[in-house]
Amino acid sequence: MRHHISRSHVLVLAAALGFSFIFVFAKLLEAEGVSSLMQVAFRSSFSVMLLLPALRGLEGPLVRREDLPLFLGLGTLFTVFLLDFLSCLALGASALVAVALLYTQPLWTMIMAMAAGEEEFKPSRLGLVLVAMVGVVLVAGEPAGDPSTRSGVILAAASGLLYALYLRGKRTLSRRDYPPLRAQLAVFLLSLPSLAVLALALSSSSLPIEVVGLAWPTGRVVIIGVLFALVATTGPYTLLTMVDTDEVDPTEEGIVLLLDSVLTTLWAALFFAQAVVPLQGLGGVMVLASAAGAIATSRREFEGR
Q: With helix as H, strand as E and coil as C, how does 219-230 read?
């Protein structure tokens, strides 16, 4: 029986830590004039390079034929999700709106898990999801700058659903007999075709240069891009692939991953001198309490089976 936080919980917590640095690296690349499309390209291509050693000793194909649609789907979701969220900011959505709508992910995750028969509806679990989502809104702080544009808000709303869909596919992948590093390498590798298609489609569009601009990277940009891929992409996504789906329920995983929003605010204060107000602290407490409640509730249900 699971009496304490399991290995899978530690993996999800570590993944949330890695994801929290997305803000840091995105801000650094933005300051260097790197567009949303280029940031996604860096994360995908550098992640493939970092995981290439996982091919050592490989016998047979990297992906079995019957699993190819799953890997292609995850690769496409990865690309579209990343570009969608980064672009919603460039198109005018405030940080508050973008973050709040992105973190509707646990609600979508819970709905999908119930539809698949993996979880039963429980008011207490819904309450934890709602508390966490309100906490994220508070911890994100007040929006700054111009009001959100309609395009930015639509993209931000879609990002929460895309995030939940990726996590859903990831849990399916975790049940397949693939070493985690090779599985994640295959996902990143198969994200490149969709990235190429998107790049070609967007290159002739009228979208802002902040979204689709292309430029030859400097040495500093390459270093930041590699660190972005290692710390906030390869690491956390691989850790999620290693999660045992029998130890962590879908909604529980979704709620725990919201902890990255609390850490993101902490890094913003430490590295970018962003002021933190008491309301943000309250939001952080709400997210932490919701994550702790989700783990405790899931453990009691697991031990009662």
A: HHHHHHHHHHHH
* 144, pLDDT greater than 60: no
Q: Of 39, 23, 7, 47, whose CA–CA distance to 238 is shortest?
A: 47
How would residue 47 be classed by pLDDT, with cut points 50, 70 and 90? very high
Report the sign of the C-alpha dihedral through residues 176, 64, 187, 195, in that order: negative
Report, as an integer, the average pLDDT of 107-128. Answer: 91
CA pair distance 110, 118, nearest whole angstrom: 9
Check residue 17 and give its pLDDT. 96
For residue 205, is it left (φ>0), alpha (ψ between -120 and 50) or beta? beta
Q: What is the pLDDT of residue 216?
A: 86
Q: How many Cα atoms sit within 13 Å of 207 on the Cβ side? A: 26
Taking Cα atoms as reference points, which of 305, 284, 282 lies closest to residue 2? 305
Cα–Cα distance measured from residue 50 to residue 253, given in angstroms and rounded to the nearest whole number: 26
57 Cβ partners below 8 Å, 6+ apart?
Answer: none
Could you tell me if 247 and 109 are in contact, meaning their C-beta atoms sit under 8 angstroms apart?
Answer: no
pLDDT, residue 35, reads: 86
